[in-house]
Amino acid sequence: MKALALVSGGLDSTLAVKVLQEQGIEVAAINFTSPFCRCSNHAGCGHLATHMARQLGVELQIEACGEDYLRLVEQPRFGYGRHLNPCLDCRIYKFNRAKEYMRRIGASFLVTGEVLGQRPNSQRRDALRLIDRETGLEGLVLRPLSAALLEPTVPEREGWVDRARLLDIRGRTRTRQIAMAESFGLRDYPCPSGGCLLADEGFARRARDFLRHGGHLTARTATLLQTGRHFRLSDHTLGIIGRREAENAALEQLAEPDDWILRVLEHPGPVALGRGCVSEADLQRLARMVVRYSDTPAGEAASVSAALPAEEEERVLRTTAAPQTELDACRL
Asked: Is pTM, for the whole model, over 0.85?
């Protein structure tokens, strides 16, 4: 008997695989990468899933969420959670993709590390039923960490899996999972819980503003929304200012031909990007902000270079720093 595990690289999905392996079930794994992963590991969830797969000796398929996923984020059928997280639609999307892969490899059922009540939007009992029904996987999704609290699935009813050896974990605490990891000898396991930027308040606020003003999500704009300090300069213009050297470099790489790039000439400071229909007033305002975050002495004027990536010529604006109240008024 073969199962396909949907893994994030986090502790729960790692344990779900291990629980089935302890029953002699052959397990393959699939991981979906997206621009919104915020794992503490800089290489992201795909790297963590690979690390997990190596530890457990399972074959891992990594697939990227495509443009159809980004459109789903913009207009989810089942709405958002607390922020911009379309958790139900996201799970349905990934389950449907996993179902296709199950058929290709001859797996009989799907396994997840979901825990009843752990996430308020997608791991309620009714939400789990909805996801299974919408994907046509009713009875074929086994959640080993909470299976004893849920209706028996086909693998349990058919005796492929011993239900008595499945668990009854519920809620957000991971005390039992951490203890299980110790008992399985998983001392170098990934972060106990992963994360999604769409559920982050700050990122969601910037993304909502971006979409409200006519933006569309792409891999590049998703990265841009994670980079720097964001300011709504006007209805038509977004300003972004780097916070560190890596972000300054990223802003220059992410700039489109009609974006403005600004930097202070006489003193160390950040790079700024102006996107949209940048008016003269917007440009002057962004220049004042760049001076504010530079090493320009308080009260002194500074020269700010402003250029379009597609053009060789640059403008030089002479200005003083914006007051803190000006920054606070338009910060996202």
From this structure: yes
